[in-house]
Amino acid sequence: MLAGKGFKQVYNVSGGIKAWQTKTAVGAQDIGMELFSGKESPGDILKVAYSLEQGLQEFYISMERKAADSRVKSLFSKLSKIEIKHQLSLLNAFNGLDQEDPVTREEFEAMVGKKAVEGGLTTDQYLDLFDPDLGSEIEVISLAMSIEAQALDLYQRVGARLTQPEARDIIHKIADEEKSHLASLGKLMDEL
Question: What is the pTM of this model?
Answer without folding.
Answer: 0.76
